[in-house]
Amino acid sequence: MKGFKMKGLPPALRRRKRYIAFKLIVEKNNKRNNEKLTAKQFFQEVCQKALTLYGEWYFSQIKLELFDEKSGEGILKCTREKLDAVIALLTLLTEVEGLSIAVKTLGVSGTLRGCRRFLKSFKSFNGKEINTER
Amino acid sequence: MFVDFLRFQPEECELLEGFDFFVVFNSKNLVRASTTSELQKQLKKAKGFVGVMSDNVKVNREAIMRRKVNAILDFENRALDYTSIKMAKEKDVVIEVSLAKFLRTKSFKRSKLLEETRLLLKLLLKFETPFLLTTGANCCLEARPRKQVYRFFSFLAKDSGIDSEKLIKLAKKNSYRIYRMLNDENYIMDGVEVLK
User: Fold this and answer.
1) What is the ipTM of this complex?
2) Which of A5, A84, A132, B15 could hold B143 in an S-S bridge, CB 3.0 to 4.6 Å?
3) Do A104 and B49 touch (CB under 8 A)?
């Protein structure tokens, strides 16, 4: 989807952008034999969710920039002012095309190059259970 | 130290990144009641860090007054009133504010929940009632990393004119307090601890 772009805009008038690196976690052993989601399906769901949650006003400031289908990782582009709103939106995503999913945000950066670093290294969970029966 | 309240046993759940410890609520320490008499019966059997889940305001108020109850757990239909939140501060009962209830609901129900949570956060900050921002997940896919959970509630608070920095600061402080309460044998209460 190509958005409206005005050419030759001086840097001071350009909108500040942020890139959000994320990982898509799809339900294991799903009904569709571990079928993977396509970038288009995911993008449509993000758009739909943005429209229902925030309306058309916010939706105009969200753009899907990159999505790697193999690893389930991707980068989402948005304006700096709406960063928190987009992260809240990703947090609330639970289903795409009937498949249960969860989106884990890996990091935020002002450049695409900076954002790609987050895709390479993310930590795993190693929390411990507290025994409350003492 | 960040503590999360869960309703399942996480095994290799990478979505819980950022939480150092978790408390699992199962049949032993989770009390579900719709009447006060039911609550009293079930509390006799409960052990450990006890959490109560109820959609009845009277039951939740009664639970806060009970010494055995440590937390009022969050779900879609939880009912809390002004006096219960005020009383929870005095009785040192933790009020859970979970993210999973928003994931389990949609459209109108979710918008109602958002409005309720805004008001709840306002009151929690007003009385400085102990509260915890958690995932409250029933399964691994309902879990979210700690930063994402805190960012969501910070955004919700900021959007409603609530001091989001204070909210996160208090949530972190309470998380550490609960960790010490459950893990540190020398800790008795805030400002009172056994020094060797």
Assistant:
1) 0.82
2) B15
3) no
